Fold this sequence. Notes:
By secondary structure, the protein is α+β, with helices and mostly antiparallel strands. The chain has 2 domains: 17-76; 80-156, 2-Layer Sandwich (Beta-lactamase Inhibitory Protein, Chain:B, domain 1). The chain has 4 helices and 8 strands. It has helices at residues 2-11, 26-33, 80-83, 93-100; strands at residues 38-41, 47-51, 61-65, 71-76, 105-109, 114-123, 127-135, 141-148. The strands form 2 sheets. The protein has a 4-stranded antiparallel sheet, with helices on one face. The longest helix has 10 residues, at 2-11. The N and C termini lie far apart (35 Å). 24% of the residues are buried.
Amino acid sequence: MLCAALLLGGCGAPFLRQVPAVGEPLPAVEAKLGRSDAVYPAPDGGRILEYRGQPMGQFQYMARVDADGRFVSYEQVLTSEKFATVRIGKTDKDEIVRTFGRPAEFSRVAFHDYEVWSYRYKEAGVWNSMMHVHFDQKGVVQQMINGPDPRYDDRFRLR
């Protein structure tokens, strides 16, 4: 019992945090959610706070604070629905990192000279998956491919 309490209390699990009320000031947000792992400028002058679950977790939470430093929202962003908002040929790296945070893995596809950012997530809340976001040389999304997370797929295990 003590181990479970220490694990849950010590890790600051983002899904167990008390979500601030809309309009609360940034210090109250940080008091409730904890210190963020990264902060990104929002196009509207506000800030986006990343509560990292990558590289090994299947979640990533983003809190949004407006230009006046007031809390707007807090959401788990690694979902099929959120990935569906990415616009092929239009969304760039800056928008991806503001929307989903840093990826679990970085790689390259030599054939197209694409940079690939991969995010672990639960597809449809059920399947252990990875979403691979492919960027061209200009940093614009050219394709997205989801597939099984090799961590959970026996086909990828050494025998």
